[in-house]
């Protein structure tokens, strides 16, 4: 019996085309003879074709995703995609153990996977964000600033690396990097 590897895909809504690329890549790797002889990959993603999870009117969207798809901590790997948004803040009812809030559902997903001891790979599109209608709105600028502040934690004040961020220019580069990296991940299992 083949091992199943579940891969949680996390992101704010501004990278939907890249989410689709990752979902398609995961599915295509299942047809790669070297991968298929070792495991079956499953994308855990609210945007995946056929997912159609119900969004409850009396709960948060984050609750619905976790309830019906599972959490990042339930999966073997979490892949996070960013461009210019950190995402939508979670309500005050969802708190860390220290009482502080989460900057976004994506941040909750990252921390949930890390707290479960699962690997998290973060990818950020390199292309500078250009708003659809200049000038950039305060809300758009706030999202860019929040994301930049969050990712600034990548390095400690002394210059040492706290965590890694994979950067990519376009779908082709994302697909190439992620294909190679997933093969390494599968090989290590």
Write up this protein.
With 189 residues, the chain is α/β, with parallel strands linked by helices. Helix content is 37%, strand content 15%. It has 6 helices and 5 strands. The chain has helices spanning 16-29, 33-36, 61-69, 105-115, 138-151, 171-188; strands spanning 3-10, 39-44, 77-82, 120-125, 166-168. It has a 5-stranded parallel sheet with strand order 2-1-3-4-5. α1 crosses α6 (171-188). The mean pLDDT is 87.
Shape: globular
* Overall pLDDT metric: 87
- Say how many strands there are: 5
Q: What structural class do the secondary elements suggest?
A: alpha/beta
- Major sheet details: 5 strands, parallel
Question: Which percent range describes the beta-strand content?
Answer: 15-25%
Helix percentage range: 25-40%
Order of helices and strands: EHHEHEHEHEH
Question: How many angstroms does the end-to-end distance come to?
Answer: 15 Å
The low-confidence parts are none
Strands of the widest sheet, in order across it, are: 2-1-3-4-5
Q: What Rg do the Cα atoms give?
A: 17 Å
- The number of helices is 6
């Amino acid at each position: 019996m083949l091992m199943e590897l579940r891969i949680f895909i996390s992101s704010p809504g501004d990278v939907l085309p890249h989410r689709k690329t990752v979902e398609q890549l995961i599915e295509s790797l299942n047809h790669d003879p070297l991968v298929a002889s070792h495991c079956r990959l499953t994308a855990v993603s609210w945007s995946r074709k056929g997912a159609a999870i119900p969004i409850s009117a009396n709960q948060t969207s984050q609750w619905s995703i976790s309830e019906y798809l599972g959490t990042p901590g339930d999966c073997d790997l979490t892949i996070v995609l960013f461009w210019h948004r950190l995402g939508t803040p979670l309500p005050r009812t969802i708190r860390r153990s220290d009482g502080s809030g989460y900057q976004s559902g994506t941040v909750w997903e990252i921390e949930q996977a890390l707290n479960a001891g699962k690997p998290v790979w973060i990818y950020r599109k390199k292309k500078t964000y250009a708003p659809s209608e200049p000038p950039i709105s305060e809300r758009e600028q706030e999202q860019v600033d929040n994301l930049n502040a969050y990712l600034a934690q990548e390095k400690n004040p002394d210059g040492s690396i706290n965590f890694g961020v994979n950067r990519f220019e376009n779908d082709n580069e994302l697909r190439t990097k992620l294909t190679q990296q997933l093969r390494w991940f599968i090989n290590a299992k």
